[in-house]
Amino acid sequence: MSLHSLPGLGSTPCISIDSYQSRGIYMVCESAGWYPEPQVQWRDRRGHHLPSLTEKITQHDNGLFEAQISIIVTETSSRDLSCSVSNSHLNQGKESVIYIADPFFLTAYPWNVAAYILLVALGLLIFTASYFFWKQHKTKGKLVANLEEHLAQKEKLQNELQLRRAQIYQASVILDPITAHPDLILSEDQKCVTKGDTAQNVPDNPERFDSSVCVLGSEGFTSGIHYWEVEVGNGGDWWVVGVARESIRRKGWLKFSPVEKIWAVECDWGKYQALDSSVIHLPLNERLGKIGVSLNFEERHVAFYDTDNMMAIYTFKEVSFSDEKIFPFFCVWRTPGKYIKLCDREKR
Fold it and tell me: How many Å apart are CA 29 and CA 246, to the nearest integer?
């Protein structure tokens, strides 16, 4: 889990007097450590929004945002100012208030030099405080980055360990030609299924899918843990891999979801999705070459893995298997000549 995917509040705004410009005082407000991008503004003592001179929002490498906003205060403008930064997701924010006294307006009083010295001293004080804040913020940023890297490595190791444990229960899976849709061509060893360009002349037995272009594995399971791998890199724009109950409908079009007794993932025009009670987009960075499927009756889940990158893709949890047999389930559609293939791997 990424830390900066969660909304959070940043630091209390730091207001500094920068310089004199346009016969006024140039002031800057800064705040860091926000997520997502915050809203920042100047207000007078009545809470009315004041137009800013500049506004800059920067996102750092750690994903957190830093805001900087400036304003010029003149003798005729409001002397009571506040700088507020808010997080719209949390509906919370932080605010700093400052009052500009008359001596700071050098052109209005005869003691310009004294006011200037005082302003310089205040600037040095603010600079020192800002530098201390910056050092703290930098240290915190390094700690966050290190923590995120540690969590990413831990998640990667957990994924690999989970997959290695599943691979211990390697099952020997072959396809069942009696269930294959007429458009599907099975290899002689019943390990590979190819989308044909015309329907084959096969018996219309009760077990055969007649609309959805699917095929089941030849052996069903009722208990234990079972694992198999499927090459999907040549499956084209649309394929489905998963498991299904024995009582799955064979006639008419299927909706690929647990409602139809199917637990599967699919590639739909290059987009990978889990077909749960609602379609869940899977944000994979690379094209899938091989999928591992783990059917676990003991923990009541069906898990899918990207075996090339040793990572979990999606897990159906609290699956209601009932007392029926559960069969490996495959579909390949749309493009003739495309195929998916069961992989043989050495048991560990």
Answer: 66
R_g over Cα of the chain = 32
> What's the half-sphere exposure (Cβ side, CA atoms, 13 Å) at 292?
27
**Residue partners of 132: CB distance under 8 A and separation at least 6:** none
CB 262 within 8 A of CB 329: yes
Summarised one tens digit per residue, pLDDT across range 132-151 is: 788 777 777 777 767 667 66
Q: Is 256 exposed, middle or buried (0-12, 13-18, 19+ CB in 10 A)?
A: buried
- Which amino acid type is present at position 245? R
Selection from 216, 235, 234 nearest residue 332 by Cα? 235
pTM: 0.57
Least-confidence region, from 4-18, 30-44, 292-306, 309-323: 4-18
Token reading at 118? 């005082």
Sheet with strand 80-87: strands edge to edge: 49-50, 39-44, 80-87, 92-99
Q: Which residues of 49-75 are buried (b: 16+ CB within 10 A; e: fewer)?
A: eeeeeeeeeeebebbbbbbbbbbbbee
